[in-house]
Amino acid sequence: MAARSAPSCHLRLEWVYGYRGHQCRNNLYYTAAKEIVYFVAGVGVVYSPREHRQKFYRGHSDDIISLALHPERVLVATGQVGKEPYICIWDSYTVQTVSVLKDVHTHGIACLAFDLDGQRLVSVGLDSKNAVCVWDWKRGKMLSMAPGHTDRIFDISWDLYQPNKLVSCGVKHIKFWNLCGNALTPKRGVFGKTGDLQTILCLACARDELTYSGALNGDIYVWKGINLTRTIQGAHAAGIFSMNACEEGFATGGRDGCIRLWDLTFKPITVIDLRETDQGYKGLSVRSVCWRGDHILVGTQDSEIFEIVVQERNKPFLIMQGHCEGELWALAVHPTKPLAVTGSDDRSVRIWSLVDHALIARCNMEEPIRCAAVNADGIHLALGMKDGSFTVLRVRDMTEVVHIKDRKEAIHELKYSPDGTYLAVGCNDSSVDIYGVAQRYKKVGECLGSLSFITHLDWSSDSRYLQTNDGNGKRLFYRMPGGKEVTSTEEIKGVHWASWTCVSGLEVNGIWPKYSDINDVNSVDGNYIGQVLVTADDYGIIKLFRYPCLRKGAKFRKYIGHSAHVTNVRWSHDYQWVISIGGADHSVFQWKFIPERKLKDALHIAPQESLADSNSDESDSDLSDVPELDSEIEQETQLTYRRQVYKEDLPQLKEQCKEKQKSATSKRRERAPGNSIRLHFVHGYRGYDCRSNLFYTQIGEIVYHVAAVGVIYNRQQNTQRFYLGHDDDILCLTIHPLKDYVATGQVGRDPSIHIWDTETIKPLSILKGHHQFGVSAVDFSADGKRLVSVGIDDSHTIVLWDWKKGEKLSIARGSKDKIFVVKMNPYVPDKLITAGIKHMKFWRKAGGGLIGRKGYVGTLGKNDTMMCAVYGWTEEMAFSGTSTGDVCIWRDIFLVKTVKAHDGPVFSMHALEKGFVTGGKDGIVALWDDSFERCLKTYAIKRAALAPGSKGLLLEDNPSIRAISLGHGHILVGTKNGEILEVDKSGPITLLVQGHMEGEVWGLATHPYLPICATVSDDKTLRIWDLSPSHCMLAVRKLKKGGRCCCFSPDGKALAVGLNDGSFLMANADTLEDLVSFHHRKDMISDIRFSPGSGKYLAVASHDSFIDIYNVMSSKRVGICKGATSYITHIDWDIRGKLLQVNTGAKEQLFFEAPRGKKQTIPSMEVEKIAWASWTSVLGLCCEGIWPVIGEVTDVTASCLTSDKMVLATGDDLGFVKLFRYPTKGKFGKFKRYVAHSAHVTNVRWTYDDSMLVTLGGTDMSLMVWTNEMEAYREKRPCDSEESDIDSEEDGGYDSDVTRENDISYTIRALSTNIRPMFGIKPHLQQKEPSVDERQGVVRGSRPPVSRAPPQPEKLQTNNVGKKKRPIEDLVLELVFGYRGRDCRNNVHYLNDGDDIIYHTASIGILHNVATGSQSFYQEHNDDILCLTVNQHPKFINIVATGQVIQQTCQLQLLLFTSGMQ
Questions:
Q1: Residues 6+ apart with CB under 8 A from 181
Q2: Shortest CA distance to 265 belongs to which of 252, 281, 248, 282?
Q3: Which of 217, 561, 589, 780 is deepest in the core (most CB within 10 A)?
Q4: Environment class of residue 399 by beta-carbon count within 10 Å: exposed (0-12), middle (13-18) or buried (19+)?
């Protein structure tokens, strides 16, 4: 099928007609190279008037609405709209991105401004608070953010003469900002009596704290500090939209169409009225001015750009025009000349020359125009109007031929027949009218088959048929000129269509994604000669398909630039160009068509660099046409690692269960047990879904991961040390270049990355907050300072970190498909590669973003799935291993060649000083020279090659290799089967570590008198493990089916295994050979147990709710236990071998008599008294306390009691291993908890002498051995966590003061509107009571001074009525009584060698002089201060920090001040 691949031709943006003048201001500047920079739609344009050439910046994904020029005038900052808008800083020479700032604003970025030296950028958002944000743009880091204003902000500027000062203005306000530390504090401008409070549209800062601003009424307001000092009235007749400061002075432009120039003290120099010039018109409104030397640039509301030379100011030169505001829908191309015609809702029709890139004619109509057509000889131009009429003009002089109105609704489409005799006109009322051109457009027919509005029309080449599309997506055919509908498919079959602009029809099926019934494609146009089809859709995307494309979901190339819906697209008459028009951005884009043969020469333009990659060869249904993925990779792509409950959800879940706890905690609960366990050895390695996760450390130990444990294995001593900082599956691991630190990433709702030291096993840094669900790949930079990580969220986010500071440097969306590997360039720390499903991308850091370019495959191959990647011997060279067994060699971003390396996928690759080593699914390790020319040596991983002393057994030959690492003269290999092998350069192989393969592990049994255990798994193997010092697998046997349970006979000679198909077998415990097998059940066997003593009976429990009892000697079934309502989960015998205790999935605890299987009812009190041979039950009074508070969410899956009946170990669904004191009566017992397993713990067993606990992880496939440490001789260790799900009062309770303070909530206070609650009656409303003196008739002031009250401070003057009342100007705080001690601590300090005391009360910081008793105050806080501290460092004398309550959800706001209080 032709549509299987994207077309190999290409479009290159050549010209954009238009300029965004509406709703934007100050967006037009001269660069240092005297080029002009502005924007239109989603494209930044750099226009060179000298060469009449445009360059385009296309890093945005939606409409650009703001622009700022760096003071050096080379770099440009642009901000866009959108749900997650971002700011791009780009170079106007190279039009490449320098930095991306994101993740802060929402809705859009309204204004931008650089500071004086260009280091910082300020941006204003379009969110409800109009947030103001200051950036260190080179690092992509936000320095400060504050809510801007409740209403829109129109302009913001740095004060170029005072550092750290900004001014913003907007709807009815102007604000003066101060940036101090990371806090932005505003002060509102005081309009006072000098001018009216009104909307300020633009501003410019000058010397001496002066600010000039343009107001809505045309006045200029002059500010000194924050006060309005004077106004320059009538500077313009209407609103002043733009103000530009330059060396010579200021230029302003307004709605009155005037430009005014002012000198540096704002005295008028000259005025230029654009409306009066030859190019001017009524209603011209200036939106942007830029004054440089003797040139002035002017941008207008109606998308024009003028250049004015000051000497000839009445002759402005028009350098760019476009359509004005209003939707743009009409587009037609001239049949013989390189001309395009557009018509818009601005009622103008315009003709553009595609060769000269200029507007050559324009005519204003009475009505908005919705469609256009030029007849075959290029003489007539027909325009369909929104009111249902259509007009025909002569092309050469735009004079009217005819105006006809037969319909009341909009005309959507019209087309002339190829022979020029008819005009078909399609209307919104579902009709198509046919008019005869020669009969002065007399109506000769109509087509009435459609039920919805007409969207597209095409004539047949012989002008005898017309096909139409309508709003329902129906395609209909009519005979011309009468308009009779054609229903016979035979008649239509042979018709050749003169043009193809219909969106439905067999030939264009491929433009629609599979399984979609949306109609978001607005326009198509077929190029029969080049066999390509161009489409335009609602998302602003232009796509190229092969023509015809018959199968849905065809591949395409896509191009972005338009921001909103693209309404129409057409090929020029000679197929040299594609013209596209944007509806809402009303811009006209002209694309150069580069056919296949020319592509070779144009390779340099192929990878269009942008954030949304433009040269993509993709389809909306990628998976339909991919070569079959390898089965292993297929499995792996299906893994999502999503959990119902994450460990981080526990605190919330516990909160929700608080009520349950309250009732339960009245009873006094048992203490946690005295014993503790310590992780001793882990069998297993995570190879089945992870790659390149195995390394040598500095001192030759081996580091890898399994479950939630980072393991450091010492191969000489056969011991392991563990990093236990993670709490869920570790998915990736990488080692620092110095081989001493390791980074590991895990699964989680907010997953963390831990960087830890392999010597001390302590975490150095933990990174969180930017990934979701999990981290799938990590890599250190060559200098070890940076770390890059990839998440498993839907967009596979890539984050670059400064890991020591824990700071995010850059972030970007990786790919919609899974990314398997990320590698940082060892030579350039700002570059990296990612590889994954059909994905190879080359990234570079740009500020807070990363810019990715897809690897360009060209003719050398196809976009394959990459499984591994490394950098080579220079910064340009990269190598990747594919899922088909090839190694791809890349230079820069181009594929140079491919080399066949393995049969099946290449899973791992490692770069050496002089060469490479690769490993694949074929189980071969290959050594290569440094250019992949020759394969120097191969090692096959086979049993025959195992070194004689090797412990453990290789399960199969040629296991799939998942990780390779070199060092210490060996090659380290990790396999999919969970084995770690060491290959000596000379060939012999040593097996170091092994575990179960993929598939859940449930079956576990410990030997009755030896330190060994048996496991059986869904991976269809039965294994015997040595728990004593050798820590190896002693025996393994493959089974026909997976198994879920096993058990040793009491004498240890036989081993019974229950399988998943309902059968079970008994094997010789030494040789694992079959003794006997039975198959009586259909569902899986869930538990199997020998009776104690001689092991006479065997109880076999199955998922179909029955327990069969067999006589071992006679091999016959002697009894069946019935009566369970659900599947059986656990069974235990009593010591006499006469009674069975059973747990079921419905949480029933049942008892059966053996061997007959009769059901018994035993009161719960009696159960305790029975002596049980084993206890693995999770139900009953004795172990009521093992169920957690959140028992609904998580299950306790297994338990096991020590032989001294003191300690009960349990395993649960969240991966916790817990120890309880036995019996655990009462709910929510106290326990010790251990995290190492990631998923559910499926089984736990104590060894025969209780010295070790063995636990199994279901989906982490690991077998963990813990040593049991008795109370007496264990040293305290941090990993011992003694806790319980609830902390009740009886655990010690609180002191009453502490309780009170613990319960104080500052939120309520902060959120209530009154800062202080008021009680009582205000003083002037109170009824005045006579004072005691007055009642006694004592003259005021003559009382003897014997009062016990403290003397009145002199300042409290008694109110002398005689004094003349002066209006109170201002209040000055003089003295504060009080100190906040009731709920604060450590908040009084000496300063200045004990001369002063500093403390706080209410919202005031107080510096109290001990000698004089005078106070000075820090009054910047606006609510209660809760804490205070003094910097003790000699460098920072007298620096104090205070923190307050604040309104947004009561976070603390910290302020630093010097205790000079000034």
A1: 1456
A2: 248
A3: 589
A4: exposed
Q: Residue 660 belongs to what H/E stretch?
A: helix 658-664
577, 331 contact by CB (below 8 A):
no
Q: Residues 1247, 1028: contact at Cβ < 8 Å?
A: no
Task: Quote the CA–CA distance of 1007 and 927 in Å, as a whole number.
Answer: 44
CA distance 226 to 232: 17
CA-nearest of 33, 21, 37 to 69 is 37
Q: What percent of the residues of the chain are helix, what percent strand, and what percent coil, each to the nearest 5?
A: 5, 45, 50
DSSP 32: T
For the cut 80, the answer to whether the pLDDT of residue 952 exceeds it is no
Q: How far apart (Å, rounded) are the C-alpha atoms in residues 262 and 210?
A: 15
Tokens in use for 244?
A: 């530009």
Report how far residue 1084's alpha carbon sits from residue 1060's, in angstroms, rounded to the nearest whole number: 4
pLDDT at 311: 85
The closest alpha carbon to 620, from 469, 816, 851, belongs to: 816
1200-1209 per-position pLDDT tens digit: 988 888 888 9
First to last CA, the chain: 79
What CA–CA distance (Å, rounded) separates 532 from 595?
A: 10
Which whole number is the average pLDDT over 294-314? Answer: 89
Cβ neighbourhood burial of 1077 (10 Å; 0-12, 13-18, 19+)? middle
Contacting residues for 492 by C-beta, under 8 A, at least 6 apart: 465, 477, 486
Residue 1077: HSE in the Cβ half-sphere, 13 Å Cα cutoff? 17
Give CA angle at 464 (463, 468), nearest 5°: 85
Which amino acid is it at 404? I
Nearest-angstrom CA–CA distance, 239 and 285: 10
Exposed (0-12), middle (13-18) or buried (19+): which is 658, by Cβ within 10 Å?
exposed
Structure token digits, residue 813? 């969306």
Q: Measured between alpha carbons, how far is residue 465 from residues 459, 480, 717, 832, 1016 in Å?
A: 6, 5, 88, 57, 74
- pLDDT over 80 (residue 1366): no
Rg of the chain over Cα atoms, rounded to whole angstroms, equals: 40
Q: At 667, which amino acid appears?
A: K
